[in-house]
Amino acid sequence: MKALALLLLVLATACADDDVLTPDEEWGMEGPMTPTPPPGKEDSEHRRGLLVATNTSATQVWTARNKWEDTTTPAAAAAGMAWPANSGLTWDAKYAKWIGSLAWIPGIDGYSMTVQLTTPWGKTLPSPVLECAELSLFLRITFAAWYELPLFFEAVDGQGRRVYFGHNGVRTTAGRYAASPEFALKYKDHTATYAGGTWPTDRVLRDKRIAGGDQLQPQLAPGAHFGAYLDEIHLNKRAGYFTVLVLDYLGSVHLADSANAYNLAADAVRSGDFLIECWQRSGIGHTLVVKDVTELAGGSRDITTISGSMPRRQGRRESGQASKSYFVSAYAGGPGVNEEGHLYAKLGGGVKRWRVAKNIGGYWTNTWMAGDEASWINSTDYPRLAARTARFEQILGQVSPDQQRIELLQQITDARRHLANYPSSCSARERREHAFATLYELSERSFGQSVAQVDAAHRTLEDYVFGELEYTRSKTCCWNSSTSAMYDIIMKRARAQQAGTCVAPTVFKSQLDGYLGWASYAQTLGRGTEWRPWTEDEPCTQRATASDVEVPPDATPYCALNRP
Fold this sequence. Notes:
The protein is built from 17 helices and 19 strands. The chain has helices at 23-27, 74-77, 91-101, 132-146, 183-186, 203-206, 226-233, 237-249, 252-256, 320-327, 382-395, 401-421, 426-447, 451-458, 461-465, 484-497, 516-524; strands at 47-51, 103-106, 113-118, 124-126, 129-130, 152-156, 162-166, 169-172, 175-176, 261-264, 274-277, 286-295, 301-307, 313-314, 316-318, 350-354, 356-360, 363-367, 376-377.
């Protein structure tokens, strides 16, 4: 979710409760984890990891019995979730088939569409509730674990040590990382013994939660944690524990890292790829998983994506037009510079594909599939990276200005709905304003409407109360546990301030007294217990900043709106 801060979205810290362990305490880690250093002048085809001939029997999460490039082995020739027997497909191609095959179903929010996860054992579950980068990581880990494929992600700890999160555990070249779990010794794998019937469960795994904000899975059961979701889809419980650990430590910055995923040519995009939007060197970014790529008449395409959010939600369907707005945005590594003068193409955004781990020269090596080199773009080839947005403008389906306006207004509505449940969300505020910026441009070009006319027709009081904040200078953005009850209190106060007059709405943010104005108002309503205090739900370098910083608004001032 914005040019991907090193410590934001990377490591979630402890909840407010004193008896909740921090991730480091829980997993024996020494976080946080940052991306690998920039590749220099040349990006690399091969990212060498650990020696294959290493005794990892204690830390092993699963054994890599298969290879991503396999097509004719007994396992590769078998029919699967989205492919027939003797398909001739590599496992990487099967991953794409699986993502594309997931059915759209109604989401638990009552208005959006999400995906239904399928498993090799015939079980189906609604999408988990996750942050957007977490969703892409979850899908890749899950598939690799099910089919016993080699996998690793790279990161760097605070001491500069290269850390590998993979099928053989969490390790460095020197061995087991810190006191990280010995997965093979501590947790069970029921894959070899399960013959149908009662699904084996792990009560400890079911209680595992991702650190940082709300991670409940109400689509499973009231009070169910993310660990319960993993327990339902993995016979190998080690993979479940590993997934929670990875999501505690890795995030958008690691997806943007070319060590883990490579930059992809626009024409090569397929199901299972992902798009990252980045607009600052430090701050949130937005990740979307490519779900469907449909060929249209005349050679154009329609791409639908799955998006998560902060705070977490079920993966949500983004229509072709909504998805296109992300693919053609400058934030997707396009041309131009941001407000700080940095090239967007240098910020790590754009469409990417996961690297595949292969045994090359006796080392586990992250690379790409044979034949994919032509689709790879060097992460330092900034002109080619920046040109992708224009190419997407050409190849993605064109719709009428009226339909574009409908889609943009739907994006604005979706962001408002998210804020109604999580009023501290900075990512939803940014998405709303990004959609308005696109709407302003469209309205001037196609309908001859000014910003003031657009705002008069479509702005609401809520847009001003929940004004956009600078992520890295606003502690509100680290607070992922605000509630719909708090939203109601905030809006009641805002409407009361407008009674009989018009004043610039007070933006909901941390002020010199924190959030005292809203907390006190909640007391006057007899709802003091419904107001939650601020908590550091994700690493927050701006925690000591008393007063949040607003992004200068492009909107017409509230009291200047010329309502019809």
